[in-house]
Design brief:
Blueprint (H helix, E strand, L loop, with lengths): L1 E6 L5 H4 L13 H14 L6 E4 L5 H12 L2 E4 L16 H7 L1 H9 L12 H18 L2 E5 L4 H9 L20 E8 L4 E8 L1 H4 L4
Parallel strand pairs: 1-4, 2-3, 2-4
Antiparallel strand pairs: 1-5, 5-6
Helix pairs in contact: 4-5, 6-7
Amino acid sequence: MSTVVLVRPGCTDFDEQKRIQGSLELPLNDRGQCQLAKIVDAIRDQPVEAVVTGPCDPCRSTAEAVAHALDVTIKEKDALCNLDQGLWQGLCVDEIRKKFPKVFRQWKEAPSTVCPPEGETVGVAIERLMSALKKPLKKYECFVVVASEPLASLVSCTLRGEPAEDIGDSMFGCCDDQLVEIIQTSGTANERTGSSEQIPLAAATSDE
């Protein structure tokens, strides 16, 4: 059994503007920088051995902060780049809802059946993320994965052996105070089972 500490990175301007970030590279904004300390507080008691992250911001800067605070190694994997949402990237959610109402509704209800124009499918993203996590799952008993939405929700569903049909809202980013999820996972790479627990960051804030 492995414990995967799944961390969604802090906020970017796109998160707060309700824009699709996808695989675009964006820095953390002021709120995102403030969230880093809360993320570290939330996972400080976990016996973390390493941090695994995608190559782009905001994941990389979040992972670097976590790895430095916990004094563990950081491993960057291109295969953990966020879901490529093609021509939707940079658009506001409302723009997509108005311009592509049928496809937007289909994504919300059955995201695995939709491929954004010039983007990639959920199935392709799952294949590459599992390839990226195969070695860490064998090597570590507890490690951090830093992933942006919607890839983070795909990681969670896949490790828990659940279908990826409940990630419709996650395409729009994550800008709340529940950025940390503890996943207990077991089984083979193709037949994972597990459970998870969301950790609210506000409750994990130190008193200092």
